[in-house]
Amino acid sequence: VRSMNFVLFFWVLLYGFSYSLAETVTHFTGGSLWVTPLTMLGYCLLLFFWLIHTNRAVAIGLSPVRLHAKTDLIYLIPLLILPVLNLSGTAAMNPPHYTLLMISVCFAEELLFRGFLLSFLIRHLGRWGIFCSALAFSLLHCVNFFSDMPASYVLIQILLALFVGIYYSLVRLC
User: Fold this and answer.
1) What is the dihedral of CA 123, 124, 129, 133, to 10 degrees?
2) Phi, psi of 155 (to 5 degrees)
3) DSSP 147
4) Residue 135 burial by Cβ neighbours in a 10 Å radius (0-12, 13-18, 19+)
5) For helices 96-109 and 77-93, what crossing angle results, to 10°?
6) Model-level pTM greater than 0.90?
7) pLDDT tens, position by position, 90-146
8) DSSP secondary structure letter of residue 113
9) How far apart are CA 29 and CA 158, in angstroms?
């Protein structure tokens, strides 16, 4: 368990460092806007495949969704609809490199909140871990108060992130 906590801590630090480095390189060199999204997506994919290759994926809570019956597929519909709606709105307002960045952010959030954090919190807090993981996921969206988004939009985003976080956690655990 301690080694998994170290992996989580190291992963978060390296993710932030990779993002900052990619943004700095893009800014100071006048480089392509694709540097950051490709760096972040590549980082997430490398981490994901490393976790699978070293058999650590299950230890941190990454496991296939188990469907007990074909009717269970109905629970997966929101898992597909929400990201598609989010990305379609993003793609309409922003260039393709931004959409790729959002895909890598979504991937990283799922690894962190429904992978590492949820497993850790369930072990230590039981069912309260579901709520705490979802609360952490929603509070992460408070950073959007520092963007040019209206405060009312950010508040709605935080509330929706809480409910979506609970739903995604329940689907993952069932």
Assistant:
1) -90
2) -60, -45
3) T
4) middle
5) 150
6) no
7) 555 566 677 677 777 777 787 778 877 888 888 889 999 999 999 998 998 888 788
8) I
9) 35
Q: Which two tokens stand for residue 59?
A: 């230890």
Query: Taken in order 64, 67, 70, 72, is the CA torsion positive or negative?
Result: negative
- Within a 10 A sphere around the Cβ of 46, how many other Cβ atoms? 10
Cα-based distances in Å from 169 to 28, 60, 76, 132, 162: 40, 14, 12, 11, 11
Token readout for 103 is 């895909």
Within 10 angstroms of residue 60's Cβ, the number of other Cβ atoms is 21
Structure tokens at 23: 């943004």
* Residue owning tokens 């709105």: 89
> Quick one: residue 31, left, alpha or beta (phi over 0 = left, psi -120 to 50 = alpha)?
beta
